[in-house]
Amino acid sequence: MDQAAETEDNSMIKITNIFKTYTMGENVVKALNDVSLVIEDGEFLAIMGPSGSGKSTLTHIIGLLDVPNAGSYQLNGREVSQLSEDELAVLRREEIGFIFQQFNLLPRMTAVENVGLPLLYSKKIFAQNFTSSLLEKMGLALRLDHRPNALSGGQQQRVAIARALVNKPKMILADEPTGNLDSASSKEVMAILHELNSQGITIVIVTHEEEIGQQAKRLIRMRDGVVQSDVRKIPAEISDFKKIPELPNTTVISVGSWAEIVEHFKQGFKALIANKVRTCLSMLGISIGVAAVIAMLAIGNGAQKAIESQMAALGSNLFVLRTGATRVGGVVQDSGVSTRLTHEDSEALKEQIPAVKETSTRVNGKGEVTYLGQNWHTQVLGVDSSYARMHASQPEIGRYFTDEDNKKRARVVVLGSTVAKELFANNSPIGETVRINKIGFLVIGVMPEKGTNGWQDQDDVVAIPVLTFMHRLHGRAFVDAIEIEVNDANNMPEVEEAALEIMYKRKKVPPSVRHDAFVLRNMADIKAAMSESNETMATLLAVIAAISLLVGGIGIMNIMLVSVSERTKEIGLRKAVGARKKDIQMQFLVESIVVSAIGGIAGIVLGGMITTILSMTIGWATSISLTSVLLSFSFSAAIGMIFGIYPAKKASKLNPIDALRFE
Question: pLDDT tens digit string along 134-151?
């Protein structure tokens, strides 16, 4: 009784009445049939049997890569048969080290990185110093930075053994560890396993080689899913085998989640570099989408700024008062002399309404401007001196005419830049005399260049004092319009109402015809309408560009699904060494984000080039804003994450043993 209790206390593994069945079509295969087994700490156990005997299935259950359909499995006194996949992963990396027949080394990683892979999930870091020390103990000091394809079979198996030991497990589970090795390498591997066992590590070997099985201290033979024999014996003499010294005792300290993320990004870069062409094609879709977003938004922003510039030329907080029409007997008639506007009306509005900042009368006409045989047909504008301040038209060269010039009806003129270029080329027109409709005018200034507003060239104009226009050039008694600038945009409605009331009284307009007597044209309303139209177009362009980003995201998802399929065996290995579902998800999500982020950066550069080319070759107004760059880049990164979720989840749900068997 006391001896049984002692055996119970020393038991590392206790398997009781476990069953495992597989369904293959309509057939149910019993892989394990009522198997019971106890493995004590420090044992060296070999499991042998022909193909289909159940030895591999039993090993997978012992290694927590698979679970039984029924029965009990206790590891160090803990029932594990009903644990979740993530709980099994944590237990695997803490208790068990795996040595695989096919080595299962990741080809894009060096020997040091392959050994450190389990540490990525247990300690969140590769810990190169520790893994290098471990490989040196395995006799691979000169092969630390070699990839698997540069190592012999024996060297690869020693790397696999070092990987199994890196988390200092209590048990090593070796599946045909010498199956792909020559006799010399097989002896080296078995010597290592015996030395590890002498250090207190439990060794479980699955083999079909009688010579290897005879070297174990305990030999279990299986057939048809049941244990046929379980013999404890004295192992063969191994004194001539090469042994290894004690394993290094270097302590590996766990690090924070940021270091883990950095390691995942390193892994992601290496995985993507391994498939350069496919990765570049995935990035291309995102790059085109980001470039389209930036270019479209740049065009929209440029158009908005052009509108703002044009509105600044028209004037801010400005409205125009014009003569309207009256209705007599339901028939529209000209309002007649009683409602026509005069220069005195403009002065009255400025004096009587406190919120009015400036007023200017305006008359328009066409004229021929000549100079020394050069002539140019243009618009002639008769305005007050305040017009320059209201419309940001103060000359950069020369000056604008004054109130005194207007009162004297002086024959002075300010040229638009287009007229100045046509008549004077590159010469200064200041002080020269031009003729407007054969009347001589002294050029006193050149207005700043404003460009076109979509309808006409704003620089193809000349401005003269309004009284000069009315009495010397055209002989008119009335003006076409009065422009009124308000000191605050919030006062616009109040000023408009006050202006109409004053004009009704001055012109003695009866209430029955007041509705159509005058027309008010608010520049703020025009600006708002143009801005709204531009924003709608910019939004439409951005939506079209965003669709291309979505297409790029779908491309990333497709590529990542292909990657999951290609790397199924790698996923199984990662799970075998302790990766949880979230670790696998993080790995593939990081790769998706890396693709979209690099593609986004390339798209930003491409978008900048496209807008520059459009601006230089076609002359379109463009403006790249920091907001559009950040928006498109963030959107591309979000696309990578969103479309990477499904492949990442699919990868994380793979059964570890099925993934390891995948071909």
Answer: 888 888 888 889 999 999
The span from the CA of 317 to the CA of 153, in Å, is 84
List the one residue out of 51, 50, 46, 78 whose CA is nearest residue 64.
Answer: 78
Q: 3-state DSSP helix/strand/coil percent for the chain, to nearest 5?
A: 50, 20, 30
For Cα atoms 431, 434, 436, give the angle at the middle one, nearest 5 degrees.
Answer: 140
Say how many C-beta atoms besides its own lie within 10 A of residue 384's C-beta: 26
Place of tokens 């009866």: 510
Separation of alpha carbons 568 and 565, rounded Å = 5
Provide the pLDDT confidence category of residue 308 given band limits of 50, 70 and 90.
low
Which is higher by pLDDT, 441 or 627?
Answer: 441
Give the helix/strand (H/E) hosting 272. helix 257-273
Helices (H), 448-566: 466-468, 492-507, 523-566
Helix H or strand E segment including 439: strand 439-446
Give the CA distances from residue 179 to residues 143, 175, 182, 360, 500, in Å, rounded to whole numbers and listed in that order.
23, 9, 9, 100, 102
**Angle CA 332–335–340, to nearest 5:** 155
Concatenate the DSSP letters of all residues of 93-147 into one string: HHHEEEE-TT----TTS-HHHHHHHHHHHHTSS--HHHHHHHHHHTT-GGGTT--
Q: What is the pLDDT of residue 575?
A: 86
Q: Measured between alpha carbons, how far is 478 from 496 in angstroms, rounded to an integer?
A: 21
Q: Is 502 exposed, middle or buried (0-12, 13-18, 19+ CB in 10 A)?
A: middle
Which tens digit of pLDDT belongs to each residue from 490-517? 788 898 899 999 998 888 888 878 877 8
| pLDDT tens, residue by residue, 342-355 | 889 999 999 999 99
Calpha distance 642→561 (Å, rounded): 14
Take residue 575 and report the two structure tokens written for it. 């799970």
- Calpha distance 33→21 (Å, rounded): 8
Work out the pLDDT band at 332, boundaries 50, 70, 90: very low
DSSP string across 270-288? HHHHTTHHHHHHHHHHHHH
pLDDT in tens, 606-638: 888 888 887 777 666 676 777 777 777 777 777
* Residue 261: how many other CB atoms lie within 10 Å: 13
33's tokens: 């049939």
Compute φ and ψ for 172, nearest 5 degrees.
-110, 125
- Compute φ and ψ for 547, nearest 5 degrees: -60, -40
pLDDT at 241 exceeding the cut of 70: no
Strand partners, 222: 227
What is the pLDDT averaged over residues 206-234?
88
- How would you classify residue 83: left for phi > 0, otherwise alpha for psi between -120 and 50, otherwise beta? beta
Round to whole Å and give the CA distance between 472 and 363. 13
The DSSP secondary-structure symbol of 479 reads B
Task: Supply 22's token pair.
Answer: 């597989």
Write phi, then psi, for 313 (nearest 5 degrees). Answer: -70, -35
Write down how long the chain is.
Answer: 663
**pLDDT at position 339:** 74
Q: Give first-to-last CA distance, the chain, whole Å.
A: 50
Unique residue bearing structure tokens 């531009």: 534
Residue 662 CA: distances (Å) to CA of 204, 268, 565, 651: 24, 22, 9, 13
